[in-house]
Amino acid sequence: MLGKKGTLSEKDIDKVLREIRIALLEADVGFKVVKQIIENIREKCNSVELRTSVAPSQVILNVTSEVLTSILGSEVSELQLKSESIPVILIVGLNGSGKTTTTAKLAAHLKTNGQTPVLIAADIHRPAAVEQLNILGDSIEVAVYSPKISDSAPEVVTRGIEFATKRQATCILIDTAGRFQVDEDLMKELKQIYAKANPIETLLVLDAMAGQDSVNVAETFAKDIGLTGVVLTKIDGDARGGAALSVVYTTGVPLKFLGTGEKINDIEIFHPDRIASRILGMGDIAGLSEIAGKSFSHNQAKQLEKKIKRDEFDLNDLVAQMNQIKKMGSLTGLIEKIPGLSKKNIQLPNGEDGEKNLRKIEAIVSSMTLNERRKPGIIDGSRRRRIAKGSGTKPNDVNNLLNQFSQMKKMMKRMSKGDLKGLSMFR
């Protein structure tokens, strides 16, 4: 076990880097990017002076986290809204990436932060896109400029900006047409729109599930029209967010937002350190606390954070969080934020999808007594059978949940003490 050694040998580094390579590939980081990252980590590890009080495994993990965070950006990349005229944000991307929904989500985000946005529906090739943006605009009470039948996309943008100016908008968001693949017509139209809009921000919307294709699309848009940022959608369905690392590393374009679900508020400002943590399977305690803050009072959120740090988080807390997430959107978003859990290891034997599995977990916990939820260690064979019968599950399902929760607790305890060697790669 590396954690018991005081020095770091080449053999130690090779052993751990093999595990890190697997973790990165499983997180959907591109092969070429993984290769370069591993080389960077090795080089940095060789230059680190070890103290006998620090476990080598923790040193390697710290170095890995630093390397990933430095690639993703050391700070949050905020939207730039300082402009002599009304700042324009141009939203581009392929069909199916969530571009239109993201445009409305960003408008809602800006409105929450004191802005008066106006939306321009410049996707004239997909009639449903105009209707969709109008419906979303109505839901957040943001004005939408829609095209006339004979207008070209650049004309829509020109008239839309005039419309926004009359309404004293403080910012403008333009939803543009996508294609199923990048083509010359798409880029030609975008260049014309770009010339009319003179955007201060050009954001590319990418589907996190597209993997390496996301990198190829980002490279093409960055080269042909220029980009100031990327919005990665469907991150709740992505393994850990490795596509984010590949896109930023390959293009140098910063990630600004993550789409975390289907609801209008399911969008997060991108925090580089959090994605680095998720990629390494360490969860996202800061993000978890942030979610709690949206659904609980400030005091309740603080209490949850203290419970996690004191190793007092129990099955009651898990169910409470699940119920809050249910009200806000996808339950699976919670899973990736909890150290020690993932959509991969939360699956129960019957192969149901994540949402159904989480409902089953809630049923299992609900069938426990309050004391069993607080102290799951007291659950023996007879209690398991009773809980399984009460929840309509099998004793093996109860066993799986208890084992997963035990691993989660161990991870939380180690992380709260700053001991990062609890990852499976260091066991």
Structure description:
- The protein is α/β, with parallel strands linked by helices.
- It folds into three domains: 2-72, Up-down Bundle (Four Helix Bundle (Hemerythrin (Met), subunit A)), CATH 1.20.120; 88-273, P-loop containing nucleotide triphosphate hydrolases (Rossmann fold, 3-Layer(aba) Sandwich), CATH 3.40.50; 285-426, Orthogonal Bundle (434 Repressor (Amino-terminal Domain)), CATH 1.10.260.30.
- It is built from 18 helices and eight strands.
- It has helices at residues 10-26, 31-47, 56-72, 99-112, 127-139, 153-166, 184-197, 212-224, 242-251, 272-279, 285-295, 298-309, 315-328, 332-335, 354-366, 370-374, 381-391, 395-416; strands at 88-93, 117-121, 143-145, 171-175, 201-207, 229-233, 255-259, 267-269.
- The protein has an eight-stranded mixed β-sheet, with helices on both faces.
- α2 (31-47) crosses α3 and α17 (381-391) crosses α18 (395-416).
- The longest helix is centred in the last third of the chain and has 22 residues, at 395-416.
- Residues 1-5, 343-352 and 419-427 have low confidence and may be disordered.
Structural class determined from secondary elements:
alpha/beta
- Give the CATH level 1 class of the largest domain: Alpha Beta
The CATH architecture term of the largest domain is: 3-Layer(aba) Sandwich
The radius of gyration is 24 Å
**Number of extended strands:** 8
Remind me, CATH topology of the largest domain?
A: Rossmann fold
Instruction: Please provide the ordered H/E string of secondary-structure elements.
Output: HHHEHEHEHEHEHEHEEHHHHHHHHH
Proportion of strand residues: 5-15%
The main pleated sheet reads as: 8 strands, mixed
Mean pLDDT: 80
Domains (count):
3
Terminal CA distance reads 7 Å
Task: Give the helix level as a range of percent.
Answer: 40-55%
Spatial ordering of strands, largest sheet: 3-2-4-1-5-6-7-8
